[in-house]
Amino acid sequence: MPGIADIPILGKLVDGISDAAVAAIFCGFRYMFCYKDLVKTFESQVEKASMEEDRVSTKVAAERANGKLIQPHVDKWQKEAAKIKESTEKFAEKYKNRHSWRCIQCLPITNPVSRFRLGREAVKKTERLTDLIDSGKELLANDIAHPVRAENLPKSTTEFQEFQSRKDSYGELWHALTTDSSPIVGIYGMPGVGKTRMMEQLWEEAAEKKIFNKFARANVGKEELNVIHLQKQIAEDLGCTFDSQDNAESRASQLKQSLLNAGKTLVILDDVWREIPLDFIGIPCSMGSKILLTSREKNVCLGNKCKTLVKITPLPNDEAWDQFKNIVGSDRIDSLKDESLAKKVCGKCGGLPLLIHVISKALQFETHNSWVDALEQLEKGEFVNIPDVEAQVYTCVKWSINKLHGDAMSCLFLCCLFNEDTDIPIKKLIRLATGSQLVSGESRVLSMVDTLRSSSLLLDCKEDECIKLHDIIRAVGRSIAFKDPKLAFSHVKCDVRLLDDAEFVKTKFLRLDLDGDNIHIPDDLVCPDLHSLWILCNNDIQQFSGGFFSMFENLRFLYVEGNNDSYLSKLKFSLQPLGKLRTLVFFRCDLTDINNTNVGLFPENLETLRLLFGHLPEPLDLSNLKYLRKLEIIGLRVKIMPNTISSLFRLEELHIPDGFEIWSDDSSAVAKPILVEINQLTHLKSLHIKFKISEPFQNTNIFDNLTLFKICVGESPQEGAHFSHKTSIELQGCHEESLKGLVQKAEYVKLKHIDINVIGSIFDSNPEAFTELRELHIKECNEMEHLARMSQDEIQHSPQTSFSKLTCLEITECSGLRYLFCNSVAKCLTQLQKLIIRDCPVMEAIVMNDGSSSGDIIHFSNLEELELSKVPRLRSFCSKNKDAMMQPSAQFQPLFHRMVCYTLYFSNHPWSTYFY
């Protein structure tokens, strides 16, 4: 007789039920009788999960330190890991503190229900841990963070003011940008009226209210339209990298697709002078996106098919006076005891915000007599006809420029030689100003830049190390510099032949733009007054016919620049006629084919030679430069002839940050040490160089006389890490005694893989060391137990100025570190702004009480950022003593004042820790 199992459908169902029942029974037996093994497996997975969590946390901390944003799924994983960890700790605690497994206490009969529950819970938690471990490994195998895209916002030097007279204009522009009425919007008005500032405010508000997905800005300018340059500016703001660097059509196609992919975009074209071929550039007029342009002329806006045009007019008298008075200050106006005088001066600004800023700042702290003189000068000022610059504007700008003292004026005129609307690198300005001897010293140039900024004659720009010049200031400045015979600046563009111009030969400082690859020079052309020459080569090969350099018989400064991003300019000419040349700079030039002579590659009377980002002949022989005082080679590692550096016995500054090699005919030979030659430069005051770890630093005294230095031993220096510091040293795996003198007087110190406590040993022998230290970074120095401490005698007799200027302290992966400072040293850290401690497993306190405290408060008043990551044994910020790490003394001020007012990050340490 057939059973239920023989029925096709019911049979399969019965089999499934029976299999499940058997499996459940066996699982139950496994939970009851194998619970100890299951718990051991669970504990093993807990260990693995903890290790995986540590690895993820370490990588997350490193990415955060690099300024990156952590992916959301990584944060989610860490939160899940924290929950699982809490759950497993409770389970482990329950298992550890179990009272008894017996059903009846007096009989040895186990409780099967308790065993079953324990085994089942262990299996479930083990499965969760296994999933967590697997997902953690998957995280680490991929990118867990992404760079923070810099916020694309305008960088304006002045605050936007909402003038009543311009509210309607602003409202009309805002409506055009936020509705579908006009794809192309134009702002026009006379120069200096505030078109660009209004455009920037529209940009800022649209970004704040998220009207557009992306913003892109390009400065067009008056000069010939450079399509590739415009494309480059827009692409940078979009984050687009071109596949082709010199094909405008290919770039246009890629740029167009990038803009379409970006969605709703605002493209800003500033200072437009002509019709812009949008399609050829690659700017589509897609639905929702907008194009906003500024121009001086209404017809230019109409020619670019602007549907909405808004004219910006000068401010009415009352608003102009209010702005003028706000800048000068009411108290200063009152001190003149003649408000009408100030109003008359304000009236000369014509209601133009640019002139109001320039004039008011120039007179802000002047006496009554200076105000009277200013008014007279503005009323009778001579006018030079400059296209698109009105007489009143010219007079005001010229007056403000004439008020500058010599060095500030020279810096401004050098800025006027740069192309219109270009970003001016401050480093380049320094080289031009000091090389031409118009301004003496880098610090002086920087000071003059600050002066010009505060006078509103120079503007900030998006790049931190660059400045900009308003086109009106540039136009008037060029007019003054070109016409004043004492200055005699000139800017000439040359195609194939240099013209024999009577005015040209009187020039003293010349910028020469070469568009032809072979320039012909008139045989009788001579420029006896020219002392400084700045050449821009726009070709891949640049050569000259005739006696080009012979006509500059008194030239003292030469700056040659390859003016193309995609290739270096290969130079083919001889420099030997320049017998009086003292400073020579090559930037982005290929010198491998430059005419060499038996005398040498460069003129022998050179005092300064700078070779920047180019190609050099190998080996480089500079042995004829007996008068050389400054040598700078940046952007490449160079091979130099033996005994070349040591022969430059007058050298005072040697800057080769990538280091150099001594040339050898035998390619298999061991590289010769470079320090042997550098050590013979007895006049050396400034050294910027990279050494190999193998360099023989013993018996070296060349470092004792250095006043400026940037030295790296081992790995390459971190780009931009200590640009602002005049003295810095980075050591990897090297702790030579001869370098300790540099360490203790440097502003920036970075130590890595060093097996002794360099800082501590220096401080023990000289408690007055590190008085100039601003930044200290230490990594993987595992023998270091503390950073610095003082004895009782030293505390009483030391002025305690060490570390008093320290603003940033970062300690990473120091496995032996127990604490950083004694409290006497910690009291000196009044300027500390940033404290980062990562992966120091035995660290128990930040500050160790040396017994000198008498109730004084350790106050880190400037601390802005604190990060403590992977410091599991940290119990207190300050311990009573180094032997008993316990709760801190009451006299120490709590670090956390109930409300944290600085960036704070904790990772991997007990939350029950006391912080003081």
Structure summary:
This protein is 35% helix and 18% strand. The protein has 916 residues and is an alpha/beta fold.
Characteristic terms for this protein:
916 residues; alpha/beta; Rossmann fold; 17-stranded parallel beta sheet; ATP-binding; plant defense; Plant_NBS-LRR; leucine-rich repeat
Task: Give the overall pLDDT as a whole number.
Answer: 80
The stretches of 5 or more residues where confidence is low (pLDDT under 50) are: 884-902, 910-916
* Quaternary organisation of the protein chains: single chain
Given the structure, what is the number of helices?
A: 26
Number of strands: 38
The shape, in one word, is: globular
> Major sheet, described briefly?
17 strands, parallel
Ends apart, CA distance between termini: 85 Å
Percent in helix: 25-40%
Strand content bin: 15-25%
C-alpha Rg, in Å?
Answer: 36 Å
> Structural class of the helix and strand makeup?
alpha/beta
Q: In terms of topology, how is this protein built?
A:
Layout: H1 8-33, H2 35-65, E1 68-70, H3 72-96, E2 102-104, E3 109-110, H4 112-140, E4 145-147, H5 167-178, E5 184-188, H6 195-208, E6 214-219, H7 227-238, H8 248-262, E7 265-272, H9 278-281, E8 290-295, H10 298-303, E9 308-311, H11 317-328, H12 330-336, H13 339-347, H14 353-363, H15 368-380, H16 391-402, H17 406-416, E10 424-425, H18 426-435, H19 442-454, E11 459-460, E12 466-468, H20 471-483, E13 489-494, E14 509-514, E15 518-520, E16 532-537, E17 541-545, E18 557-562, E19 569-572, E20 583-587, E21 589-590, E22 608-612, E23 630-634, E24 638-640, H21 644-647, E25 653-656, E26 660-662, H22 675-678, E27 686-691, E28 708-713, E29 727-732, H23 740-745, E30 748-752, H24 758-765, E31 775-779, H25 792-797, E32 808-812, E33 821-822, H26 823-826, E34 834-838, E35 845-848, E36 865-869, E37 876-879, E38 903-907
Parallel strand pairs: 5-8, 5-9, 6-7, 7-8, 13-14, 14-16, 15-17, 16-18, 17-19, 18-20, 19-21, 20-22, 22-23, 23-25, 24-26, 25-27, 27-28, 28-29, 29-30, 30-31, 31-32, 32-34, 33-35, 34-36, 35-37, 36-38
Antiparallel strand pairs: 1-4, 2-3, 10-12, 11-12
Helix pairs in contact: 1-4, 2-3, 2-4, 3-4, 7-8, 11-14, 13-15, 14-16, 15-16, 16-20, 17-19, 17-20, 18-19
